[in-house]
Specification:
The structure is a single chain. This protein has 336 residues and is of the alpha+beta class. The protein has two domains: 167 residues, no CATH class; 124 residues, no CATH class. It is 26% helix and 26% strand. Strands 3, 4, 5, 6, 9, 13, 14 and 16 form an eight-stranded antiparallel beta sheet that branches. The chain has a six-stranded mixed beta sheet with strand order 7-8-2-1-11-12, with no helix packed on it. Helix 6 packs antiparallel against helix 7. The structure holds calcium ion (CA). Calcium ion binds next to loops.
């Protein structure tokens, strides 16, 4: 008797769908989430074939300065720093010309990072769709996700690494051609740490000025990705005069910044020549002015100054330069 009772609502829904012509959609949206040991955090959203994402409709609440929140994603607030970023890329996999996949990639996810993403979906079929709960797979395992309810995510060792919440429209009817906006929040709580924390060790502008002694043009171009130098000639121009005029603090700041950015990139490319075993990471912490500061904060500080130098005093610019100078001259602790 119990089996019959359980199946009754499904039978009723099936009959209703047949009578009123609703599309039978079991998983309107499937979310596949993963977090690698050194990042990134990835959430891939896929729609049912009867639905599609609206082009260019991805929005991220993090468009620069990062946000954080309390546990449960209450009390969202600005952090004043920009260490993580979330990008969204659409693609079509079903071959019908519609966008059915959205890949949201979070670079440098760190404990405390909060973001809210949104995307528009539309019904590309002929029948109305009653929106079911989205299906969530985390690290390949299904996790129940209920609209509006905070859901914890764990790593394979049982540590909680994040919490997520899906917001909007479950149970509502999406008619053909109609658009719904869906939202997805996440809050990073812990990240898997590499087995050994490497000591920070920098490379100076002098090393990078003579990059041709170590790297091919192709290798150096790869190392320039995401730095303040868009190509080899702009990198050469930045390093050419860094030592020439000590009075020109912006020129020196630019050279120290580019050196730090190049060393960070080099640290993530183990196939590149690295004669001094240099290692810098944006999350790496150094002692400075009786406190500590991360390499990422030192880099962002210099970027902020260089974006609008006239807003800063010579002393502030020198401070930013000295900090990067110290980082670029860090030497790995030698074994006794
Ligand atoms: Ca950010």
């Amino acid at each position: 008797m119990k089996r019959t009772a359980l199946h009754l609502p499904i039978m009723v829904l099936t009959i209703l769908a047949a009578v009123f012509g609703f599309a039978a959609v079991t998983d309107a949206i499937t979310i596949n989430g993963s977090l690698a040991q050194d990042g990134p955090l990835v959430f891939q959203f896929r729609t049912d074939p009867a639905m599609a994402f609206v082009a260019n409709s991805f929005m991220s609440q993090d468009y620069g300065t990062d946000e954080t929140s309390d546990a449960g994603m209450y009390n969202v607030s600005m952090t004043g720093q920009d260490l993580a970023a979330t990008t969204g890329t659409f693609s079509g996999n079903s071959g019908d010309g519609t966008l059915d996949t959205l890949t949201a990639t979070v670079t440098n996810p760190y404990p405390g990072y909060y973001n809210e993403l949104s995307v528009k979906v539309t019904n590309v079929g002929a029948d109305p769709i009653v929106m079911p709960e989205p299906a969530l797979n985390w690290l390949g395992q299904p996790v129940p996700l209920v609209d509006g309810v905070v859901t914890p995510l764990y790593d394979t060792a049982g540590n909680q690494v994040a919490e997520v919440r899906w917001l909007d429209n479950t149970g509502r009817t999406l008619c053909p051609g109609q658009v719904f906006e869906e939202a997805f929040e996440f809050h990073v709580l812990s990240v898997p740490t590499p087995p050994q924390q490497q000591d920070l060790s920098g490379l100076t502008p002098g090393y990078w000025k003579n990059w041709r002694n170590h790297y091919t043009a192709e290798q150096f171009t790869a190392l320039l990705a995401g730095t303040i130098a868009s190509d080899i000639s702009s990198a050469d121009a930045i390093f050419a005069h860094y030592n020439a005029k000590q009075s020109d603090v912006l020129t020196i700041l630019r050279a120290q910044l580019l050196a730090a950015q190049l060393t960070v990139n080099l640290s993530g490319m183990p196939q590149m020549p690295n004669p001094g075993s240099a290692y810098l990471s944006l999350a790496g912490r150094v002692e400075w002015n009786n406190g500590t500061v991360t390499v990422g904060e030192a880099v962002n500080n210099a970027l902020t100054i260089l974006a609008n130098p006239s807003a800063y005093t010579r002393g502030e610019i020198l401070g930013a330069k000295d900090l990067l100078d110290m980082i670029n001259n860090l030497e790995q602790a030698r074994n006794p």
